[in-house]
Amino acid sequence: MGVDSPWVSIIVLNWNGWRDTVECLESLYQIEYPNYDVIVVDNGSTDESVQNIERYAEGRIEVKSGFIRYNMNNKPISVTQYHEKEGNGIVSQGRETNTLCPNRRMALLRNEKNLGYAEGNNVGTRLALRVFDPDYVLLLNNDVVVAPDFLTEMIRAAEALPTAGIFSPKTYFYSQPDRIQWTWNRVEFGRGNVFLAGAGEIDTGQLDEVAETDYSQGVCFLIRRATIDRVGLLDSEFFCYSEESDYCYRARKTGIRSIYVPKAKIWHKVSQSANKVDGFALYYLTRNRFWFTKRHASSRQYFSFIFYFFTVELSKSFLTLIARRASVGALKSYLRGVLDGLKIHPKW
Q1: Rounded to whole angstroms, how far apart are CA atoms 156 and 203?
Q2: DSSP states of 48-94
Q3: Which site from 82, 258, 267, 287 is most exposed, i.e. has the minimal number of CB atoms within 10 Å?
Q4: Which residues in the chain land under pLDDT 70?
Q5: Which residues contact 95 (CB under 8 A, 6 or more apart)?
Q6: Which residues does 343 contact at the CB level (< 8 Å), separation at least 6?
């Protein structure tokens, strides 16, 4: 793709994870796509993330990675600072007239506190729309490394499929680079489950066809500008987890499809068999599963899910958590997620 390629704003959300973030940035600054801006949104970190991201931009932190070779030639990277209020308030319109190459510049937006995944990305998206005027917005987890051609392949697919508005790549496990984490999925509302095609399998080319997916993975989430104009932003009430599935289903209701792009490849730092039970994550995963199902399933599907959950899944989940030596606090978080999930969402 050449100089007339669509403009993409890439938003990377950081919260106390600068080591992952700088490796992600180093891979982004080595992509072949010509027209992009990188916006790092710091979500109220308390671990000196901002200072270390700035040090990386200055060339004072060398990134060591098994996926990419550190490039000193594009350092220092010019950093433009923004504040949370600027992201939400009135900012000068139009694409910034920055003459530096995309891999020589960064926008760094600082949130005063942790706004969650959804609103943290919304703040970055608002800034992108007002300052950079992109054709697409890409939401990217900070614990990801990307292939040099990943964005080229995603935009090529997007431009070829004008009726689709959301796109996601083939995602591998960072720890096992040829093992698939995510491709496309199908939601089974009656039990509140999701079928993930190829999850955990070694990639032998079995999922190399472009396919429609019920929802795209929030780890890497490319949204067409026209889709944002029609659907809006992520629902901040979710805080974290399920906001991307909710967004894709909101888009579906307006006729906008979500597409899996197998030629675009990324690697995600996620454990396949995490033994640690996180009460924070457990609460939001549980609560938001109820919210997502309630919002997008039919009444019959939702009551089928409720029946299955309380007659089968609840006891199984408790036994699983106990077997994994979950703390009393984690068990309480799970129950609180169930109870809050049953409540009516404040905006629905």
Answers
A1: 22
A2: SHHHHHHHHHHT-S----SS-----TTPSPEEEEEEHHHHHS----S
A3: 82
A4: 85-98, 271-277, 346-348
A5: 7, 131, 132, 133
A6: none
